């Protein structure tokens, strides 16, 4: 299974909010970089941030759901 980065965040909390929304809609998600970001917040930009990844097969659906998620918040 190939994982693709859906979005990069500055904080783990932002990533977890979208992760919960996607998983509620049957998209399995994975968060990477959260430990480094939480420990060394000053270096978050250079470390690649907190990455939310999804399966290559779920990427299109996840991208559509992400758009819905952020349009709802606005």
Compact summary:
This is Putative signal transducing protein. With 74 residues, this protein is an alpha+beta fold. The chain has helices at 12-24, 34-39, 44-47, 59-73; strands at residues 3-9, 29-32, 50-55.
How would you sum up this structure, described in words?
The chain starts with a strand and ends with a helix. About 7% of the residues have low confidence. The chain has a 3-stranded antiparallel β-sheet. By secondary structure, it is of the alpha+beta class. It has one domain: 2-Layer Sandwich (Alpha-Beta Plaits), CATH 3.30.70. The protein is built from 4 helices and 3 strands. The protein is 51% helix and 23% strand. InterPro entries: DUF2007. Pfam families: DUF2007. It comes from Epilithonimonas arachidiradicis.
Give short descriptive properties of this protein.
single chain, 74 residues, alpha+beta, Alpha-Beta Plaits, three-stranded antiparallel β-sheet, 4 helices, 23% strand, Putative signal transducing protein, DUF2007
**On the 0-100 scale, what is the average pLDDT?**
85
CATH class: Alpha Beta
Order of helices and strands: EHEHHEH
Secondary-structure-based class equals alpha+beta
What fraction, in percent, of the residue positions are helical? 40-55%
Total number of domains: 1
Q: Report the sheet with the most strands, covering strand number, pairing sense and barrel closure.
A: 3 strands, antiparallel
């Amino acid at each position: 299974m190939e994982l693709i980065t859906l979005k990069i965040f500055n904080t783990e909390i932002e990533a977890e909010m979208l992760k919960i929304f996607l998983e509620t809609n049957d998209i399995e998600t994975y968060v990477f970089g959260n430990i480094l970001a939480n420990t060394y917040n000053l270096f978050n930009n250079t470390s690649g941030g907190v990455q939310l990844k999804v399966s290559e097969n779920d990427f299109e659906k996840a991208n559509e759901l992400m758009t819905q998620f952020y349009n709802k918040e606005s």
